[in-house]
Specification:
The complex is a heterodimer of chains A (about 375) and B (about 170).
Chain A: E1 5-8, E2 17-28, E3 31-32, E4 38-43, E5 46-50, E6 60-65, E7 69-74, E8 84-89, E9 108-112, H1 119-146, H2 152-201, H3 208-221, H4 235-256, E10 260-262, H5 263-274, H6 281-290, E11 298-302, E12 308-312, H7 317-331, E13 333-334, H8 336-343, H9 347-359, E14 363-368, E15 371-376, H10 378-381
Antiparallel strand pairs in A: 1-6, 2-3, 2-4, 2-9, 4-5, 5-6, 7-8, 8-9, 10-12, 11-12, 13-15, 14-15
Helix pairs in contact in A: 2-3, 4-6, 7-9, 8-9
Chain B: H1 22-43, E1 47-49, E2 60-61, E3 66-67, H2 70-82, E4 86-88, E5 95-98, H3 103-116, E6 123-125, H4 126-130, H5 142-154, E7 158-162, E8 167-171
Antiparallel strand pairs in B: 1-5, 2-3, 4-5, 6-8, 7-8
Helix pairs in contact in B: 1-2, 3-5
The chains are: A alpha+beta (about 375), B alpha+beta (about 170).
């Protein structure tokens, strides 16, 4: 009852009358009040109680804003008669204008009608009230941005802080998505694995060739179980596992291309295979350095020039030099570029190969304005 | 000018690049040394200037357009000096004497010649010596000749007589 306020009965410009009932008594909670035999008017904004509704627009009336009403329902105790309406009130706010009662222990008021209350009417009223709440909240939602507090440096700092918080949140959300994608990728790999297994079991229907082909596709898609930092206890273990993984992925390829792969190429290949859980160059290098200790089939080799390669453990410089010299003999002289196109290896690697041959005394260099070329070491071979 | 018998290395392009491999480089420099000495003997050239050396065909093979770079030339000359076949004229090492015979060899050759031809206890001018036909020392630079005779003097087999007008030597 303390949320009623005295106000003018005159309707506001956007206000309109919804319905009207006469001979209504107000209850404060369950207690009768002196406000009886009055008229009740429901507008789109508020509830009005007045002595006489004929000239309610000029006299002071009791009004209750819909924003204070949480919900309405028909009194259960008088269900048979259905003459009472319970109006539950929110306890957050008190009206600014004085009202008939200052304080009240009750959080609801009742309206007692002469006739039964139509249930449809109650439904409509509820809707109107909800509509009002919605408008209210959308208005109040806009309000803080309009009257933003910007007092001096503190205000600016606060707004910057606010902005940072928002970005932080959006970043977190973005990365959540990424991790979701990762887990999805894992599922995808599992699916492809089961498919390949199934294909293996049904070899009668699909030829051996196709199975192998499909498997190779799957392999080129990625590694089923990439080693990541999260899964291991310490850095060392991470590098060790990584080294094993790298040598597993690259062993076949390196054998194919002649036993040596430039580290940068290897790095690209491994990251390509991993797909999402990308490695940093540092991690890759550290893992490669460990290969020797782990007695893996690959090892890191650093040439004098600083070029780094992964090479087979079984790799023998002597054999390579012999091959290089044979090529030199056939072509009389060769630049690193020519060798690289001839045996399909990177130029840097071709140069290293020639320099190794030179180191073994099997080749010699010719440096001129035309560039660096290598010849068979006739100084040694023609020695009489 | 006598025909020079160019070695096979002269047409081998890597010959004109100092080889980083030490073993190969040693063989290369040996070839260079004999080439330079052969060339100087044929052309009776006794002084090489590093700055002008690239104009000389010995260090510049126009046919395959390869030049030995100045550092390479210096390296060859220093190798020659180590075996007594060269000597820098100045401290900056731009001009070098080339001795196609080492001074000791040259000294003994001259002394043998003098003995064989009965010039002992006689005085010979430098001019006479350098203009003797068909000898190792014919056409030799007088400075080089003087250095060789100084060697003989040390051994007590000759005495060099230097005067502003004419230089001579007395063999014992």
């Amino acid at each position: 009852m303390d949320r009623f306020e005295f106000s003018s009965g005159r309707l506001q410009p956007e206000e309109y009358l919804v319905s009207k009932f006469s001979n209504v008594r107000l209850y404060d909670g369950d207690e009768k009040t002196s406000f009886e035999h009055g008229d009740v008017l429901f507008t789109n904004l508020r509830l009005i109680w007045c002595r006489n509704s004929n000239d309610f627009s000029i006299q002071p009336v009791l009004s209750l804003s819909y924003s204070l009403i949480t919900y309405v329902l028909i009194d259960v105790h008088s269900r048979k008669l259905k003459k009472k309406l319970i109006i539950n009130l929110s306890d957050t706010y008190k009206p600014s204008n004085p009202g008939p009662v200052l304080t009240s222990p009750f959080n609801y008021v009742k309206l007692s009608f002469k006739e039964n209350v139509d249930e449809n009417f109650v439904g409509n009223l509820d809707e109107v009230i909800n509509e009002h709440h919605k408008n209210e909240s959308s208005k109040s939602g806009n309000a803080p941005t309009r009257i933003k507090l910007r007092t001096g440096i503190v205000g600016i700092e606060r707004s910057i802080h606010e902005k940072n918080k928002v970005t932080d949140e959006s970043i977190t959300v973005a990365f959540q998505d990424l991790s979701k994608l990762m887990t999805m990728a894992k599922d995808m790999v599992v699916i492809s694995k089961t498919i390949s297994d199934k294909i293996c079991n049904h070899q009668g229907e699909i030829s051996e060739d196709e199975t192998v082909k499909f498997k190779s596709y799957l392999l080129s898609l990625g590694i089923e179980d990439p080693v990541t930092r999260n899964r291991v206890q310490n850095e060392n273990q991470f590098y060790e596992n990584l080294a094993k993984e790298i040598s597993k992925i690259l062993l076949g390829t390196i054998k194919e291309i002649g036993g040596m792969m430039v580290l940068t190429d290897a790095y690209c290949r491994v990251n390509r295979a991993r797909g999402l859980e990308l490695l940093s160059p540092d991690d890759f290098l550290n893992a490669s350095k460990l290969m020797d200790q782990l007695s893996l089939p690959l090892k890191l080799r650093v040439f004098d020039s600083g070029v780094m390669v992964l090479q087979l453990l079984s790799h023998d410089d002597q054999i390579l030099v012999r091959e290089t010299v044979l090529l030199l003999r056939n072509h009389s002289s060769m630049s690193p570029q020519e060798l690289s196109t001839l045996v399909k290896i990177p130029v840097s690697l071709a140069k290293e190969r020639l320099i190794v041959a030179e180191k073994f005394g099997r080749a010699c260099r010719d440096e001129s304005i035309e560039g660096l070329r290598f010849h068979v070491n006739f100084f040694l071979e023609n020695r009489s | 000018m006598a025909e020079i018998n160019w070695p096979w290395q002269y047409n081998f392009p890597p010959f004109f690049t100092i080889q980083p491999n030490k073993e190969t480089q040693k063989l290369q420099l040996d070839a260079w040394k004999s080439l330079v000495l052969d060339y100087c003997r044929s052309t009776k050239q006794c002084v090489i200037d590093v700055r002008e050396a690239n104009n000389s065909p010995v260090f510049h093979n126009a046919a395959i357009s390869r030049k030995l770079p100045p550092e390479g030339i210096l390296l060859v000359l220093e190798e020659l000096a180590a075996s007594g076949n060269a000597e820098p004229l100045d401290k900056t090492k731009t001009r070098w004497f080339i001795f196609w015979r080492t001074l000791q060899e040259l000294a003994s050759i001259i002394h043998t010649w003098a003995k064989d031809n009965g010039f002992t206890n006689t005085v010979c001018t430098f001019y006479e010596l350098t203009n003797t036909p068909d000898q190792e020392f014919s056409g030799i630079d007088e400075d080089v000749l003087q250095k060789a005779l100084k060697e003989l003097e040390k051994q007590g087999k000759a005495e060099v007589i230097l005067s502003p007008e004419i230089n001579g030597v007395k063999f014992f």
